[in-house]
Design goal:
Blueprint (H helix, E strand, L loop, with lengths): L9 H38 L23 E3 L11 H4 L4 E5 L4 E7 L5 E6 L9 H35 L14
Antiparallel strand pairs: 1-2, 2-3, 3-4
Helix pairs in contact: 1-3
Length: 177
């Protein structure tokens, strides 16, 4: 004995379609906002690269066109502690180029050269915009945590330079007789 199946009314279907449209629109808008924030964080991280100790990628390890601009590793190395499981699972390395673009290096040869360099976008390599935003926010937090130590190192260097001021000759150089 089969139970009767109730079919949704056209009004109920129209309401469902309207809600799904709203969800899709909200998803698109939210992704756009996340990508804008990713761009802003990438710009800031480029400035923070020394504090974060981002490793400069050897240009000879990059495909020829990509080797013309500088790239810094965003994952692995000194940033490993900020990695999320999603970022860690990627088969490749996230990098930041001098134009503030996040890219993915993948397909490494046995000589250590990268065959593929792609501009990262939402969903690439299994990393959503939300996951990338979280990771870049963690890197920014890591930079804030490291900044005082880096500033103290710079202060010590500055004091050492200032201490040598009295050792330098003041005025024009004297010629030996």
């Amino acid at each position: 004995m089969q139970q009767p199946v109730e079919a949704p009314t056209p009004k109920a279907l129209a309401d469902l379609v309207a809600r799904c449209d709203q969800i899709n629109r909200f998803e698109t808008q939210l992704t756009a906002v996340e990508e804008a924030r990713i761009t802003a964080l990438a710009s800031g991280i480029l400035v923070m690269r020394q504090v974060l100790e981002l490793e400069l990628i050897d240009p000879e390890k990059m495909p020829s066109r990509q080797g013309r601009i500088q790239h810094w590793a965003l994952s692995g190395g000194a940033c490993k502690e900020a990695e999320t499981p999603v970022i860690h699972a990627v088969r490749g390395v996230f990098v930041l180029d001098e134009h503030e673009q996040v890219k993915v290096l993948s397909e490494r040869t046995w000589r250590g050269q990268w065959r593929s360099v792609t501009l990262w976008k939402n969903g690439d390599h299994g990393v959503s915009a939300a996951a990338m935003l979280e990771y870049l926010a963690r890197l920014t937090g890591l930079a804030q945590k490291r900044a005082p130590d880096v500033a103290r190192q710079l202060l010590a260097r500055s004091e050492a330079v200032a201490a040598t001021h009295n050792l330098l000759a003041v005025g024009p150089r004297q010629r030996g007789a």
